[in-house]
Design a protein that fits this description.
The protein has one domain. It is built from seven helices and no strands. It is globular, with a radius of gyration of 17 Å.
Length: 167
């Protein structure tokens, strides 16, 4: 849309997207939280990417897809099945993959989430840090163990999202 003098600006924005997703995954794995500043930065970077892309993606359908994912995610959050940070990361990642890639993104995220769930059942999963304010005894009394689903979302978004390398 906008012709900036900086060559390859759009590619730098896409690398920023990838680094923010990596930060979200690491944050979720280590603290079971995804800071709002990450999802806000992803949202602002998406706007910059849309403005600087010589062939911008269809914005309306991307917004509709993200709104649907956000609404379903809000329901999952209300039911206690998904964290708020995960829902926000899922919605903003949907913007990045666009309406054309949302199905692939959600399938990939589900597959990686399933693999993460299996990993959580192994001794390696038991070595993960506990969420803030939770003790080991809390896990033994619960039937569900918290899972850093942001890692699965980030991996799905990295694969289904914009290409990191332009040849």
């Amino acid at each position: 849309m906008v012709d900036f003098a900086l060559p390859h600006l759009n590619q730098w924005i896409v690398w920023g997207y990838a680094l923010l997703l990596l930060w979200a995954a690491i944050s979720d794995v280590t603290s079971f939280t995804i800071p709002n500043r990450i999802t806000l930065a992803l949202l602002l970077l998406y706007a910059a990417q849309w403005l600087t892309d010589p062939e911008p993606p269809e914005l309306l359908m991307a917004l509709v897809s993200a709104a649907i994912v956000l609404a379903v995610g809000a329901g999952l959050f209300a039911a206690g099945l998904m964290g708020g940070g995960d829902v926000k990361l899922l919605a903003v990642s949907t913007l990045w993959v666009g309406s054309h890639g949302v199905l692939v993104f959600l399938i990939l995220t589900s597959v990686f989430g399933g693999l993460l769930g299996l990993l959580m059942l192994t001794p390696l999963g038991r070595r993960m840090p506990l969420p803030a304010g939770m003790s080991e005894g809390d896990f033994s009394r619960r039937t569900r163990r918290p899972m850093p689903y942001g890692a699965a979302i980030a991996l799905g978004a990295l694969i289904a999202g914009p290409a990191l390398f332009v040849v």
